Amino acid sequence: MQVRELIQPLLLHKATGDLTTEIKGIQLDSRQVQRGDLFIALRGTKVDAHRFVEQAVAGGAAAVMVEESVALPEVPVIQVPDTRRAMAVVAAKFYGYPTKELKLIGVTGTNGKTTTTYLIEQLLRHKGVSTGVIGTIQTKIRGKTLPAKNTTPEAVELQKTFRMMRDEGCEYSVIEVSSHALDMGRTRGCQFHIGVFTNLTQDHLDYHGTMEKYREAKSLLFSQLGNAYSGQLENNPVAIFNADDEASRYFMNRTAAQVLTYGIDQPADVRAENIRFFSSGTSFTLKTYRGEVPVRLKLVGKFNVYNVLAAVSVALVEGMDLQQIRSGLSGIKGVTGRFEPVDLGQSFSVLVDYAHTPDSLENVLATIREFARGRVLCLVGCGGDRDRSKRPIMADIAVKYSDYAIFTSDNPRTEDPIAILDDMLTGVQSCPKERYAVISDRRQAIHEAVRKAEPEDVILIAGKGHETYQEINGVRHHFDDREVARDAIVSRLAK
Ligand SMILES: CC(=O)N[C@H]1[C@@H](OP(=O)(O)OP(=O)(O)OC[C@H]2O[C@@H](n3ccc(=O)[nH]c3=O)[C@H](O)[C@@H]2O)O[C@H](CO)[C@@H](O)[C@@H]1O[C@H](C)C(=O)N[C@@H](C)C(=O)N[C@H](CCC(=O)O)C(=O)O
Ligand SMILES: Nc1ncnc2c1ncn2[C@@H]1O[C@H](COP(=O)(O)OP(=O)(O)OP(=O)(O)O)[C@@H](O)[C@H]1O
Ligand SMILES: N[C@H](CCC[C@H](N)C(=O)O)C(=O)O
Ligand SMILES: [Mg+2]
User: Fold this and answer.
1) Domain boundary pick from 330, 355, 377
2) Which residues are annotated as a binding site?
3) Where on this chain does UDP-N-acetyl-alpha-D-muramoyl-L-alanyl-D-glutamate bind (predicted)?
């Protein structure tokens, strides 16, 4: 595409150079530039990419987009007031507005996004349609998987991925929409068909500052939905809310879309009644505006009933009937690294879970408590360079819901692991010392938990779930809780 065509939708811009120059791709990282790319300079949290425009041109960039005027006579220079905002506009244009050709479903909320997107994908597959997924674990396009750096990628990668999904024949795309992404405008230029809200509890206060600002960022998914200006009304947009979460009302007031609610405790359009929890699954009566049906799931915990109700709401909007939904749900599988057992036939249970927020840890421990015949041992840490204020709260929840807690490192990133543990310990000052231990090395901590376990005990290894690395001092080392737990069980069984 020629530069002039690419920048045609941009209202405010100054362009110099030969605007008939062909653009073959868009790149935000000067180190990754390929011949023919448009390089867009963003002001990041660590560096300002305006420093790299010359490097980008030397690397083959055919044009640059900047906020500051730069003298680069050899290539077209597009100067805009806000490169981040302009990026979303040109990315959508470059890839031919792929979200107009897809049914795009966005899931936001503090916890349950990955799980809910996977449930939606499985239900839609049961309907017989092809669905791509973008989120924390990976990007899935039909049989292919691509690694994920962020839960929600930047606008350029998002639009490129949507185009790939269309090329591969996907009809739907289900994506996790993080609050960071909404705040940074990564999903600008996307035409959503459905927005789903899971829940809002404390996380990411390092980034947003207050819960009000965090909620406001999340609300952007819904305020952008059903907006006639963006042509979305033709798309019959629907916003799906958790009736049991008080933030839903706030979001509801901000959307022009049609609204559907799901819930357990409050009145809702899609509800679960007569819920029965078993150690191997859950059953309930699914009551909807299209009738009711009994349901059996292999997933455990009330929190997963919410995730299922959110996914069922999407399935209903997409025209699936209750019998189809019921049979789809009976085959549903859990998500890797979420409540995942490590079972080598030992006499105690080991569960690896991605709980890394106060609310998710509380939910998962409460669920384990309900079924554990022996003691509950909880191993948990908190990530570095992230919300510090959740650390003492998570430590307090760990000792409250378990018989014994081991505080250890998660991903310390650039922080001192001991300082993170000290923050956690401020939450358990009044707790007797024999109720917990501090073992900074995660491998040692897992081995200690396994050594300590008695028959019927349940060990929860929380925080890292599917992750296959541990980031220490900015370096990612291979680390997989499931592998380490397996090694620990093997060495214990050998004794
Ligand atoms: C705070 C934040 O979100 N940072 C994101 C941001 O990085 P940054 O602003 O620090 O970038 P930077 O290093 O200052 O660089 C600025 C620009 O210079 C460019 N650059 C840099 C160096 C160079 O030599 N040449 C060059 O061109 C970079 O490509 C970039 O465009 O832009 C990067 C590239 O798009 C993102 O990967 C990065 O996410 C980091 C990894 C991150 O950890 N983000 C977290 C907070 C996040 O977004 N999390 C949410 C999930 C939360 C949840 O669900 O729990 C997510 O959606 O992933
Ligand atoms: N609906 C829910 N409410 C509360 N906790 C939940 C819910 N669903 C899952 N969890 C807990 O949160 C953990 C993370 O779940 P999931 O990966 O689905 O969330 P996420 O929102 O995608 O997280 P992230 O923000 O890291 O992408 C799970 O391992 C489980 O412990
Ligand atoms: N998407 C989450 C992942 C947290 C995972 C946890 N293991 C950690 O490193 O804190 C975040 O960026 O806050
Ligand atoms: Mg996720």
Assistant:
1) 330
2) 28, 30, 109-115, 150-152, 178, 186, 386, 410-413, 463, 467
3) 28, 30, 150-152, 178, 186
Instruction: Give the structural domain span for 178.
Output: 98-330
**150 and 49 both lie in a single domain:** no
Residues 420, 386, single domain; the answer is: yes
Please give the number of the atom of ligand 3 that sits closest to the Cα of 356: 6
In a domain, 141, yes or no: yes
State residue 453's pLDDT score: 97
**212 and 326 co-located in one domain:** yes
| Residues 159, 191 contacting (CB under 8 angstroms) | no
Confidence band, pLDDT 50/70/90 cuts, at residue 371: very high
User: Which atom of ligand 1 is nearest to 46's Cα?
Assistant: 14
DSSP states of 209-229? SSHHHHHHHHHHHHHTTT-GG
Q: Is residue 90 part of a domain?
A: no
Q: Take atom 12 of ligand 3 and give the residue whose Cα is closest.
A: 386
3-state secondary structure 40-57: ECCECCCCEHHHHHHHHH
Q: Does ligand 1 come within 6 angstroms of the Cβ of 180?
A: yes
Contact in structure between 344 and 358 (CB atoms under 8 Å): no
pLDDT of amino acid 226: 75
Asked, for residue 56, whether it belongs to a domain, the answer is yes
450 within 8 A of 350, measured Cβ to Cβ: yes
Question: Taking phi first (over 0 means left), then psi (-120 to 50 degrees means alpha), and beta for anything else, what does residue 97 get?
Answer: left
Is pLDDT of 211 > 90?
yes
- Global pTM value: 0.96
Task: Indicate whether 76 belongs to any domain.
Answer: yes
Asked if residues 122 and 209 have their Cβ atoms less than 8 Å apart, the reply is no
CA distance 427 to 41: 43
Looking at the structure, do residues 43 and 135 belong to the same domain, yes or no? no
Domain's final residue, options 299, 330, 361: 330
Q: Where are the alpha helices (DSSP H) in 347-480?
A: 358-371, 390-401, 417-425, 442-452
Q: Which residues line the pocket of ligand 3, CB cutoff 6 A?
A: 151, 356, 383, 386, 410-411, 463-464, 467
- Are 252 and 226 in contact by the 8 Å Cβ rule? The answer is no
pLDDT, tens only, 480-490: 999 999 999 99
Residue 412 vs residues 321, 347, 439: alpha-carbon distances, Å: 47, 32, 14
d(CA 138, CA 335): 12
